Amino acid sequence: MNSKPFFMGRIARLNYFVSSVLTGIAAWLCTTALSLAVGWATGIIGFLIVFIVSGFLGLSLVVRRCHDLGWSGWWALLMIIPFVNIVFAPILLFKRGMEVSNAYGLVPSAEVAIWPTLFPRRPTAGISSMPAS
After folding, report:
1. Are 94 and 77 in contact (CB under 8 A)?
2. To the nearest whole number, what is the mean pLDDT of the chain?
């Protein structure tokens, strides 16, 4: 399981794709449910909350994908520039990551692990786990 905070570490292409799609679907389902439950006018606050949370998760995925390519996470800001993001998104999706460890971490696992990808655990200072007997 990934023990890195949201904007640290690396993420493989498949995990990036699946996590991005699932984040988008979850955001769409939440906003649709909110609009049906409370109406469009009063659901705007809920929509903004969903938008902020899904944006945070999406940004986290893009930063970690940049790290897998050996780039600084600041390159993720290209995703907010119109038309540039259309070119940058397929690069993130299709360009193979570095096949060796880099400054951002070890080579990510090829297996799809959605929950730890979207919600990495924070490192806990001073607490160590007991070895299994």
Report:
1. no
2. 80
